[in-house]
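Job type: complex structure
Entries:
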Amino acid sequence: MDKTCKVVDTFDIMIVGVGGQGTLLASRLLGEVMMSMDYDVKVSEVHGMSQRGGSVVTYVRAGEKVASPIIEKGEADLILAFEKLEAARWLPYLKPNGKLIINTQEIDPMPVITGAAKYPGNIIDDIKAAGANVITVDALPLAVEAGTAKATNVVLIGVMAKAMGIPKEIWLNAVKDTVPQKFLEMNLKAFELGYAQ
Amino acid sequence: MGKNKKQLLLGNEAVARGLYEAGVELVSSYPGTPSTEITESAAKYDDIYCEWAPNEKVAAEVAFGACVGGARAFCGMKHVGLNVAADPLYTASYTGVNAGFVIGVADDPGMHSSQNEQDSRHHAIASKIAMLEPADSQECRDFTKLAFELSEQFDTPVLLRLTTRIAHSRSLVEVGEREKRELKDFPKNPDKYVMMPAMAQKRHIVVEERMLALRDWAESADINRVEMNDGAVIGVIAAGDCYQYAREALGDGANYLKLGMVNPLPIKLIKDFADKCEKVYVIEELDDIIETHCKANGISVIGKEIFSRLGEFSQATVRKSILESEKEYLSVDAEIPGRPPVLCAGCPHRGVFYTLKKLHCNVSGDIGCYTLGALAPLKSIDVSTCMGASVTSLHGMNKVRGDEFASKSVAVIGDSTFAHSGITGIIDIAYNKGISTVIVLDNSITGMTGHQQNPTTGYTIKGDPTAAVDLTALCKACGINRVRVFDPYDLSAAEKAIKEELAVNEPSVLISRRPCALLKQVKHNPPLKVDEEKCTGCTSCMKIGCPAISMKGEGKGRKAVIDFTQCVGCGVCSQMCKFGAICEGSGK
C-alpha cells in the first residue's frame, strides 16, 4: 500500500451490491483487518430502507488519519462488486487506475423484473472498455461448494484479500473474529476458495 | 479485548458506550433509522435498564421521569421521532433536570430511510435546549458524557444530534470505565417541577438566563475549536460530518472553526475567527442555522449562496463549491437500470398488496417496510405521511367522500406502528361513527429498522418473554365489533376477508398475521422451481413483484425462473400460476 505522497493519504475501498448479499459483514471484516494493521479507519454503512433488496454501498477508508467517512467519484483504490450491474453503477467512484473486482452474478432489479427496463447485455465488456482494471469471479458456485450460497460474501473477501497483498494470516484472524463459531469451518473454506482464484 | 485497545465502533455504538461510562441508569427509545443501534447497543450493558417504548413521546417522558427520579437517563430517536416527543421536550426545558437528561436525535440528510429531511436544530432553538453535534465515533462517546455533565451543570435537558453518516460510520474509539453514581434525592419542589402557569412563568425567566449562560460557556468551550493553518486565508465554520468533508477536501489549505455545540452558538468566538480570515464559508447540510446566526450578528459569511439545502454533502460537494474542481472518473455508456428497495422474497405483506391492487382499493399507507407496497409492480398505496396517519387519514377521507368511497378504501399499518400511534386513530373511528376498514399488517416484529421487539410481540428488548398486546381484544375494547384475522400467504382467504369487511357498513379491523420471513425462528420451505414444460411464459407470477422471480430466455423459450438463493418457498407465486408450473423444489 502506497502511503507516501500527500498530507492525508488513504487507501479507499468500496463494497457494493444488492441489499441482503452480505456486504455489511465484508466491510466490517475489512475494517477489522485495517485496524489490526494500526491504521486509522472509517467504515460507513447503510441501514434501513435501502437494505431491502436495493443497491447498497459501504465505504472503508484506512490511512494515517481519515477525515470523511465516505468515498466520492474518482476516489476508490478498489471496488468489490457483489453483482455486475452494481459494478457498472458504481464504476465512476473508482480511481482511473484503481482495481475493480466483479462477482459475475446477475440479480435482476425490480424495473427489469417488471419489464420497465432491460438488464444490459455485455456489461462487463462495457466496464472493461471504459478503461477499468477488472478482475472477475463467479463466486456463487464456489460458495455452494464451500457449503452454502450464503458464504458468497466470504468467497469475495478471499478474492479481495489476494488482490490487496495483505498477509493472509491477518484475514483469517478477522474471519475467525467476525463469523459465528457454528459457521466458521464453512466460511474458512469459502475464504480459501476465493483466495485461490 | 484489552481495555486500552481502541475499538472500531459505529457512532451509535459509541453513544451507547458513552451512556455506559456516564453511569446512565435508564434508556427508553423507539427505533428509527439512523438512531436505532444506540439503544440496541446500550441494551447489551447489563448495568443499564433499557426498553423499547411504544413511541418517542412515551420514551422521552419515561426518561424524563427517571431523571427527576434521581438517575441519569437517555432516550434516542430519529428526527421525525423528535416531533412526537416535542411535547415533553419543550416543557422539560422549563423544569430542568434532577439527574442528567439527554435526548439523542439522528437526522437523515439525503433521506436514506426517512419521509422528510427536517433539521432537528430547529427544535433545539425553539425548545431552548443545548445541542451538541459530534463529528466521529470518538466524539460520539465523549460528547455523550459531556452532555450529561452540561445537563447537570446548567440544569437542562441536552440534545445530542447525529446525522446518518456519523451514526452509521465506524471509527476508532478509546473507551473508559463506568462512573459510579448515587441516586439523587427525589425532589419535593412543585415550583420547579409542576408546570402550571404561575410556576411556568417564573421558570421561563430561568430558561432565558440559562441560554445566556450556555452561550458564555460556548464562547470558550474546548469542543468549539479553532484550527489555524500557516498560509491559509479562507475560513470554514462547520460541525459534524460537514467538518470532516471540509477537512477531506481542503486539508491544511483552510482555517477551521469546528463547532461541537450547535445550540446556542457563540458570537465572539465566531467574530474573532472571521476577523482572521479573508473569506469565511459556513458549510452545513440542510438549513442555514449557523449562517443565519452569523449574518444576524453582522458576520459576513458565504453559505447557502453556494451550498444546497437539499440532500447529503461530501468532500466532492466542498471541492466543487469552494475549489470549483472535480475528480476524473470512468463510466459506461450503457443505460443502468435503477435498483430501488423491494419487499423481500417471502414478505407476508406481498399477498395483501396484490389483493388490494386486484380489488382496485384506495389505500392509506403508513411508515414501515410495507411503504414499499407503493412501488411497481404492486403500486397499491395512495398516500403515506407519518406514523399512525394511515388510520386517521382514511377516517378523514371517508367522512368527506362518503360510504361509496369507504367501501373501496382501506388503511394498512404495521404492528409496531399500530402500537406507536395507530390505536388513537381506531378510537377516533369507533367514537365518531366511522365505517373505515383498517388492515393491521402484523409480522410480529418492527421490520424496517432491523427487527426490534415491540409491545405486540411478547418479548422485551432483552428477548425476555412479557405481556403482549392482544390486538383483537384491544380493537374490540375501543368499540370495533368486527375484528378478524387472516393469513396473507393464502391469497383467496385474504381476498375473501377484505371484500367482506369492505362490504359492511361499520368499522372493521383485519389482522393480516404472518411473521417476517427474515426472522431467525421462521422456518422456510425449500426454494420453489419452475417446470419449464408447463410454464407458458404468461408472466402472471410476475404481478406480485417478487425479487426472486424473473423471466429468462427469448421468444417462445421465455420462461419464469426462480432464484434459489432468494426464494423461501412461501407459495404465493404458485397460487398465481394457472398451469401448475411452479412446484416444490429439492432445494440446494
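Summary: Chain B has four domains: 7-220, 225-323, 349-513, 528-584. The CA atoms of residues 218 and 266 of chain B lie 5 Å apart.
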